[in-house]
Records
---
Amino acid sequence: MIWTGSGATPSGTNSTPERPGGLVGLLRASHHLARSVGYTLLAPECLVCETPLTEAADGPVCSSCWSRLQLGQTPQCAVCGAPVAPTPPSERPARCGRCLDARTPIARLHACGAYDGVLRSLIHELKYGRHVSLAPRLGALARTTGYEVLNGADGLVPVPLHPVRRLFRGFNQASLIAQHLDMPVILALRRTRWTASQTRLSAAGRQRNMRQAFRVRWRVRRHGATGVRGRILVLVDDVRTTGATLEACASALLEAGAAEVRALVVARAEPLPRRVPAPR
Ligand SMILES: [Zn+2]
Ligand SMILES: [Zn+2]
């Protein structure tokens, strides 16, 4: 049975101005808990907008929220994925003002959208809410909007998690997304260092933080023809924040003989501004 939205919501039962104590309070609290559990079991809500789900085929997110993800096909900066003005097709991939002089081992990058709104909620629910059933739709989104980056590539390389983080999470969200891009997935990299959060580090600090953080697996390195040597590879990740992680992965692949490394991410996050010390 699926609740269709009629009747009071669980939150509507909390309008009593005073909470009675003792046995009455305990009974009432138990009643509220039972109702909440009942609503959760019988009337699942959309993970993003929390409206009751009425169509089982939508999975944990309603069709309205998915439709709000109609992402534009505007030209993007090939380095960071930010929207840029259209350029003639003969010119090299466009770059935004911030990335004009950036040196990067990544030939070009595509981001499905900004790390904001519905897209941010979906990624949060996949990673931290462990709703792995969102991966196919996010993969389809990346496949559709990132066709230019995927075109002509030989394989996908998901950005790996540190083994400890992978163990605690139970999955790598980048691998799950990559599995739904209809291309060979090569688990070519391993993360050898636990790295701190990057968002408040300078560019040099980010590079220092990520240096030697990734290695190409020896099995992949050994099997030249079926591994990375001479291949055009696409790194896959859920979010690009500073770009340092993707660049460290790309450098490791190029050192192992990859012909070209591109990147496809579901979302592009703006790095937080560095904390400026308060004037004395
Ligand atoms: Zn929704
Ligand atoms: Zn840029």
---
Amino acid sequence: MGLLQFPNEPRKFRQLREWARTQFQQEIRLPALQRLGGEATDLGILIMACSHCGLPTSTLHVFSDLPLDLSRVELETSLRRLWGTERCGWKDAYCANCHSTGPRVYPVVAHFGRVLPESGRDLQIEVLFGDSRILRMEYHRMEPDGTSTPVGTPSDELAFLDSFQAPLSMRGLWADFLGRHLSADQLVTRQVQPGYILGLRPFTEDEREAMAFYAGFERWIERRRRELPFDTVTFFRDREEDGIPIPDEESYHTWLPAFAPDIQDALVDPFIVADSDSFIRVLDEVAARRGVRVARASGEDTLFARFTAGEVEVRLNVGPRYFRILHSGQTFHRGVITHFAKEILAIKAAGDLAPVLRARLPGLRVRVREGKILEILDAHDRRLFCDDVIRVATSHTVQNEAGLEEVVRRILPGTNLEAARLAAPPRD
Ligand SMILES: [Zn+2]
């Protein structure tokens, strides 16, 4: 941190605030976004001033456990709890320069940043203190290139989506969307990210009127299909009617309790129009950060994807999880992290295994057959080992020496290995 004179006048406070904002954006958020993209962690910085020596002190806060579906109001409440007077967010602070502690070191401003992976933008909340209390919060939107704009406090989740082109709380967005358009006079739709549109047939108790709402639907979807295939139309009540396996605690019954009875009785009919290719693109984007590539591997009626890491290739039916994500009020990005992160890591570990074993076992032939069977052959092409490569990679910690040793011992018990090595001197 650079040095600043103690800001004992409003003008200097303003300078300190602006300096803190620039530091936070350029030195903290931008590098995090460039390195981790949509998976950058929530971060905060708290700037305190010391009334004894006049210098500012800052502390970095890593918020690794803030829930990701907080609404704007819930997020502000969390920040108040963390930085406000009830908790010791700053009370135990001390001045790094003169080592003063206690009330001599008081908070001036704090910044919070959360990336919105659906649009790549960063939500930043500037928390202003006065007399050691939080006075107010101001919103800023930072683009992926680091330019930032102050924006008004979003009045609800729909306004947030307008401002950031991504939802803050997807479930909160659904609730606000239903609340606002419940008595609209036509079908209402709203895009949350490319390839993902919320839809609502407004409330009616008259079945004929309900049908009439869909009169223009075909024409509407034809128009949308000029941009993207939009191969998916699914209704929340399909969960009950078609038996889509969504656990109760993830279903709309849990996070739209006020609307759930009317949805189930089809008095109001929320639906989703989505494009499975866009979903696969997000899956690939998230997996690629972990060294795995994903591509669609099916026709129009099914949703299979091929996951590739090194010589490992796995074809999975991702359809059920795709529907689960749509029906549980998650964006593509949050849903992929929730439902695929573990699998992606396993495939990555499997992809790393063959080259590591090859280096480890000179003179033996290590190969991955059909993208999934790990085979080890001796110099005479006798098979010494054969097993599912993902199972081998995930049942040991192959990233460290001890784990690797364990794998080698397991797949090639000692004597066997020596014999194999003798049979074939190491190649160079
Ligand atoms: Zn000091």
